[in-house]
Amino acid sequence: MGLRLSALVIIAVGFAHPSFPQTTSFFEVASVRLHSIEDKTPTSAGGGPGMGDPEHYFGRGLSLRVYLCDAFGIADCRQQILGPSWIDSEKYDIVANVPPGATREQFKMMLQNLLVGRFRLVLRQEARNPPRVRTRNRQEWSEVEGIRRDT
Questions:
Q1: pTM of this prediction?
Q2: Positive or negative, the Cα torsion across 68, 72, 74, 79?
């Protein structure tokens, strides 16, 4: 029995996946722009529900992978989000007005909808086997769990 991981795979195409909920919450107003390489301010994100400014969200100079991790609540982005190289190399600025009284979960759904709509992403989940490392004495280790198996 192999250990399985769930992975979120990102594919940029010209339409949104039909099984992704389209009738959920949206930001009142949102702007997504390519981050200027001349802008030397540090990358950052802030605002939104539970923060100092709950009705305004901003992200500055962050990759799509970082925004996706925040939107989907993913802790290990490198292992669980796959996609083309530009999801790491291209940086974006996002500014959005959050409806008054929105919860953190509603905010995450708004961010998901924004990213899927603006980047025309297709999302799917798939099971993946964790990477394995074989040592000199032929013991196999799972990098994810640190589990040793004698073979």
A1: 0.69
A2: negative
